[in-house]
Amino acid sequence: MASIGDGSERQRIAQQRLRVLAGHLRRLGAEERPGVAAQECRAGPRTRRENVPAAPQDIMKWNGWGYADSKFFFNKKGQGEFTGKRYRLSGLILPSLKDWFEGTFGANLQHKSPAVPSLNTSAVAPPSLNEAFVEELKSTGIPFSHDTEDRVFRAHGHCLHEIFSLRDGRVGRCPDMVVWPNCHNDVVKIVELACKHSVCLIPYGGGTSVSSALECPPEETRSIVSLDTSQMNRILWIDEKNLTAHVEAGIIGQDLERLLNESGYCTGHEPDSMEFSSLGGWVATRASGMKKNIYGNIEDLVVHIKMVTPRGVIEKSCQGPRMSTGPDIHHFILGSEGTLGVVTEVTLKIRPIPEYQKYGSVVFPNFQQGVACLREVAKQRCAPASIRLMDNEQFQFGHALKPQVSSIFTSFLDGLKKFYITKFKGFDPHHLCVATLLFEGDREKVLQHEKLVYDIAAKFGGLAAGEDNGQRGYMLTFVIAYLRDLGMEYYVIGESFETSVPWDRWVLDLCRNVKERIVRECKEKGVQFPPLSTCRVTQTYDAGACVYFYFAFNYRGLSDPVHVYEQVEHAAREEILANGGSLSHHHGVGKLRKEWMQETISSVGLGMLKSVKDYLDPNNIFGNRNLL
Amino acid sequence: SAVLYLKTEFLFLKKRDDFEDILEERRNSSDLRYAFKCYTPVLYRGLTPCKAATLKSMVLQSEQLLHVINQVSAESGESTDVVKDEAAAILEEMAHRLQLRTIRFFAYTLSKAFKALYRSVCVNEEGIQRLQQAMQEHPVVLLPSHRSYMDFLMMSYILYTYDLSLPVIAAGMDFLGMKFVGEMLRMSGAFFIRRSFGGDQLYWAVFSEYVKTMLRKGYAPIEFFLEGTRSRTCKSLTPKLGLLNIVMEPFFKGEVFDVNLVPVSMSYERVLEESLYARELLGVPKPKESTSGLLKARKILSEDYGSMHVYFSPPVSVRSLAQGRINRSQFNLTPRHVAQKPSEETQAFVNDVAYRIVRLQQENMVVKPWVLVATLLLQSVEGMELTELMEQTSWLRDLARMFGAFLDWPDHTPCSMVVSSSISLHRNLACVSGSRISLVVEGPQGPETPEEALFNRAVSVLSCASYRNQVLHVFLRPALLAMALSNANSSRKEDIYSCFDFLRNVFSDEFILSPGASVQDFDEACHLLVKCGAVELLHQDVVMAESGRTVLSFLTLLLEPFLQGYQVSCSLKCYEVLSSDLQKNALNALIRLNVVRRVRT
């Protein structure tokens, strides 16, 4: 066993950290935690199934986002509610949700568009198995399955069209079988067998892709094997001298964080999908975490990567913090989206759990002022762990998710705050917008930092609006994906997409143009109600920012809503590119955005990537056809 | 240009809006009350309200301008403060000071003047409604045709009347020469630009940033004349691209979602400057704009200038025009405050848009009966029988209609009445003696020298030609084809096309012929001539139809003066050759075609 460090003190810190984490993310109890495990394969007892087990469909939705027990619904009184126990919002009544929902989308609770209740397994084509491959695989003892539910669950990510089809009971090409390697060596064996028998491999981590990356290419004639990394979920060692941890790539974000917390550490990498997404998936898509201002994005966090390719295993020989040894081979792996091989083990930087964490929020009279403030904060390089700016529509949306107030006093206070901001300070409720903040570190430094940021905000007309608003903003991040499922029950479909863009051309420019383009395209395509088209700034950099768009509309009266949706999203992406935005900041390209790759990285650039693919995987064993 | 080209069918089936006379209400109610009416225009929804003075400081502090100031200062060695002061002085000289007081003053005085000058001022109200809608949505650029000083006064007057945002207008610096009046114009929204500032980087930067700032902020609709100057010949001038480039740039760079271009066609039954223009074309210098000149011109108030039509075309969205033509991401790699020379692709696009707008202006120009009469008179300069004129006018009316002209011909009135009433309005140009009608030639009381006689004759022909020119755009393409038919080596379609293409190329400074639209123009011409039965399209050939002689010879004669003018060697058979405008165009064409070379002396 690797060292965990000395007992009680670490235990205490870990528990504190857990409480902090629970602030914006509540999850299942601790009874299923795996420990830090031994390095060799299959040594000692291990928990075979994590929070997201090998049969995740048992606790997760098969046709929607997240846990099966957590969902929004309208109760008999027409009030919104969120079920389950996992989140802060769980079990609460949301009185303003209905009005917001009906008002924003022109939706009506009487008009329902329910999903098919369960998967009709007979609608799924039987697996086409490569017998020789299956025979040899059996002899290795690596578990596998060709159960229909297992296959269907790994046939999709969370793009709108994928979920929409599932709700309709439609299933396209599925993997023909699923394998669960237990360790790096298992992967080596599987890849060897796949090459030998000409089988197509598609690596599968957390399944949270929103780029059609997990879709099986319909033109693929070989047997497709989904390589599910979920069983490779151990922390192999922690090195406190160098502050690194060596981790198997199948580990899910929240498990990684929790296990490290037990040792008093964290990675600080918290993408919005961290409840379900895997370390290997982060590496393969160049993921970005909410707190990147302190901890960095995934490319800043990795020290060492081990990847199995058809050509062999690729890794560096040492763990030096920086090297000048030609182009960094990690950068061929980061963002390769499963086209080159399977990431099996990663050495990551870790940090001691911060002593203190504090949320905050600032109200600005309008979006421009807010953006100007974020720009100044970035310029002075004093961004807190996270700083995000919601536009007015999203601010109103946040309000719709406010739980029922517990006392007259709170409601009176809310009224007073609103009065102060709108009447006394003269903010227009239809223009004001909110920045949410998260500070982390030593208590004293956090307080200093907080003051600095609030002082800057004040220069741009920002008013501090309390911790609670900030915390609710971050909580929204985790539940918003659940909200799409609610919309789909009532003829509302939507999606989010993101971009990164230089500072000088995006306030009122990229944001406004893209939002307007969405509205206009919807109208042209016959959408009968104005869409929800809103954005927020989720990350700031020295030279630009990351912008997130939410887009949803009521599709009643449309014969092919998904097609309309796709056309509008396509137009929105063209608009982003025309306005100087990037193809993607962290979602990746997958198959959804690959038509723009050439104009994005030039045909020479594309040729470089192709030649790497041709060298590593000449027979296209990793045949998910993402990216290129 | 294929994208921008107006589809032939669309052009001829198009239904135009009805007109309303805005002077009617002025004749029936108090002008004073009108001048002091409650004026609350619908504003652009993205408007950041600011004052004219704030606007100036925004321009002076803009990154764009500061960048150029630093460059200029680095190149010239002057300190940035000096250059900044220079920029401020340029802006001071240029900037408008739009204020409602002055507008109200003009609303009052112009009401009086217009009622004295015009029988009616007709505006298409549907166009106004579309404009109002467009003004709320996106920044608007108003692009009126330019035939008279009246144009921009009239535009602001109409917008004020309909409670629309008042435009800021790009005007020539010449007006500033007029004491008091120049400043009055400034206060009614005019901003003044030098006629030429080719190499002056700083001037260009101040100017373009000033216009772009107003556009980006949605400060006011921006109005300018694509033709650059008043057309002395009443024929559309080939468009100038500078300002159009400037107003499209904020869209290219993503600073605004879209820009709406609104072509406005202003047609006068009689242009105020009628005889001045003819003299100017013959080389008599343009009278300098001066206040005393304006006061002297009061006498025109006692004359009858007939009616006037203003047609607001539907807004043209730059975004939809640019769709598939402009790759906006080409601007992604340079900071937006650094001016970039437009790419060839962009230049070609702007040029196409400019031609398209001018053609839209032409298309909705109202053609008065007199225009047809003048056209016919010019083809028989020695005069003709009145009855023959009546007959031919009626024939020409039908032909013009068939070709899609926007004819203002009174319903249920016999042709003879219409013709004689237009002759009487233009009695300074044509006179009837007995049963014959001929051009009026003004002469001195006493004996005149041969030079004077020639000059006076030319004045009357050129004045008359300025009316004929108003219908040229209707007949231009078929006329070029008619000319090609009579000049081509064979009746084979390729031969005729190549002759057509040659003529089109020769005349592309003279007329509005969109570059690169030769094939479409040829098709359009064929379509029209087949439609009126003048030619037949056989398998490989284009041949004249039996009944086509009249139409074809009319069309050929129509362009004859221009053809002659271009035959530089010709002796002065045709008075229009004397027009300096034609000489200039011909010279440009010859230079373009490499026939002659410009030698600096």
Task: Characterise this structure.
- The complex is a heterodimer of chains A (628) and B (601).
- Chain A is α+β, with helices and mostly antiparallel strands and 628 residues long.
- Chain A has 19 helices and 21 strands.
- A seven-stranded antiparallel beta sheet of chain A has the order 18-15-17-16-20-21-19, sandwiched between helices.
- In chain A, strand 20 and strand 21 form a beta hairpin.
- The model of chain A is unreliable at 1-5, 23-40 and 42-53 (pLDDT under 50).
- Helices cover 51% and strands 9% of the residues of chain B.
- In chain B, the strands form three sheets. In chain B, strands 1, 2, 3, 4, 5, 6, 7, 8 and 9 form a nine-stranded mixed beta sheet that branches. Chain B has a three-stranded antiparallel beta sheet with strand order 10-12-11.
- In chain B, helix 6 packs across helix 11 (201-217).
- Mean pLDDT of chain B is 87; it is low at 1-13 and 569-573.
- The A-B interface holds A 504-505, 509-510, 512-513, 516-517, 577-580, 599 and B 46, 253-255, 257, 327-329, 331-332, 335-337.
Topology overview:
The complex is a heterodimer of chains A (628) and B (601).
Chain A: H1 7-24, E1 72-74, E2 80-82, E3 93-94, H2 97-105, H3 131-140, E4 144-145, H4 148-153, H5 160-167, E5 177-179, H6 184-197, E6 200-204, E7 224-228, E8 235-239, E9 244-248, H7 253-262, E10 265-266, H8 279-285, H9 292-295, H10 298-301, E11 302-309, E12 312-314, H11 330-333, E13 342-349, E14 351-352, E15 356-364, H12 367-379, E16 386-390, H13 392-400, H14 408-424, E17 433-441, H15 443-459, E18 463-464, H16 467-488, E19 492-502, H17 506-524, E20 532-540, E21 544-554, H18 561-578, H19 597-616
Parallel strand pairs in A: 5-7, 6-7
Antiparallel strand pairs in A: 1-2, 2-3, 4-5, 8-9, 9-13, 10-14, 11-12, 11-13, 15-17, 15-18, 16-17, 16-20, 19-21, 20-21
Helix pairs in contact in A: 1-7, 2-13, 3-6, 12-15, 17-18
Chain B: H1 8-13, E1 19-21, H2 23-28, H3 31-35, H4 52-61, H5 63-76, H6 80-94, H7 100-117, E2 120-124, H8 125-137, E3 140-144, H9 150-161, E4 168-172, H10 181-187, E5 190-193, H11 201-217, E6 222-223, H12 242-252, E7 260-268, H13 274-281, H14 291-296, E8 307-312, E9 316-317, H15 318-322, H16 344-363, H17 369-379, E10 384-385, H18 386-402, H19 415-425, E11 430-433, E12 436-439, H20 450-487, H21 493-506, H22 518-531, E13 535-537, E14 542-544, H23 549-566, H24 580-592
Parallel strand pairs in B: 2-8, 3-6, 3-7, 4-5, 4-6
Antiparallel strand pairs in B: 1-2, 7-8, 7-9, 10-12, 11-12, 13-14
